[in-house]
Structures are given as structure tokens and as C-alpha cells.
Write a structure and sequence with these properties.
Blueprint: H1 3-7, E1 22-23, E2 27-34, H2 40-50, E3 55-57, E4 61-62, E5 77-78, H3 81-89, E6 93-99, E7 102-107, H4 108-116, E8 120-126
Parallel strand pairs: 2-8, 3-8, 4-5
Antiparallel strand pairs: 1-2, 4-7, 6-7
């Protein structure tokens, strides 16, 4: 964590409140969205640290190649572009986007399993455009 990040208070982050959105079996979901590099991961870690055991992070699927420091199932679920297209066509993703020529998306099945844990699910979604 950089000194800039450590001095940032969760209460100083600007946000826009939306009506509560529920999904699957009517449990709340926390969606953090913003441009790449805008601090979404920092906010997610702060929320998880402020409320330990209450939130669970939804790991996205991607068609991009795994980077040397990344871990399958922790950073992303890495799949081929064709496999990601198949998941989209079969309705297996609750949302998806294409960024820098790669597909990113959230699995309905994985999200259902996270909800079954009884915790509040956090989604990290990039804005495109």
C-alpha cells in the first residue's frame, strides 16, 4: 500500500447511492464500478477489513492470459476466448464486457455459490468508454 493509499479514508471516497438492488434469492450485492486504476480494489479491501467476515469477493472470468504473479481462482478464472464466448451464448454470465480485446464476466453459478455462504457479495466492474 502506498502512502497515498494509506492516507485515503473510506469516508473521503466519492460515491453515488442507488436504490438497493437484489439478485438471485433477494440478498443484497455491493457493486464497485469505475475506470481501470480508479481505486476499486483499494475500496473493496477497506470494506472487507472494516467488516471482517461479512463480505465475499466475486472473482471474474477472463479470456486474457494469466500474468506471472496471478493465481487462478484468486485474481481471475482464466479461460480461452472461445470458452468465454460459449459461456455468454449459454447464458452462464450475469454480466460481461470486452476490454482491450479480452472478455471479462461474472459467472451466475459462482455468484450463486457465493450467496449461499450467507455473506454479501462484492462485484468489481470496470467502466468502458
Amino acid at each position: 500500500m502506498t502512502s497515498k493509499e494509506s492516507s485515503l479514508s473510506l469516508h473521503e471516497v466519492s460515491y453515488e447511492a442507488f436504490p438497493q438492488i437484489t439478485c438471485l434469492d433477494k440478498k443484497p450485492m455491493l457493486v464497485i464500478t469505475g475506470a481501470s486504476g480508479s481505486g476499486k480494489s483499494t475500496i473493496i479491501e477497506r470494506v472487507k477489513n472494516l467488516y471482517p467476515g461479512r463480505f465475499v469477493f466475486s472473482v471474474s472470468y477472463t479470456s486474457r492470459l494469466m500474468r506471472p504473479h496471478e493465481i487462478e481462482g484468486k485474481d481471475y478464472y482464466f479461460r480461452s476466448y472461445n470458452k468465454m464466448e460459449e459461456m455468454i451464448n449459454k447464458g452462464k454470465l450475469i454480466e460481461h464486457t470486452i476490454f482491450s480485446g479480452n472478455i471479462y464476466g461474472t459467472s451466475k453459478n459462482k455468484l450463486t455459490k457465493l450467496y449461499e455462504s450467507g455473506k454479501i457479495c462484492i462485484l468489481d466492474l470496470d467502466l468502458n468508454g
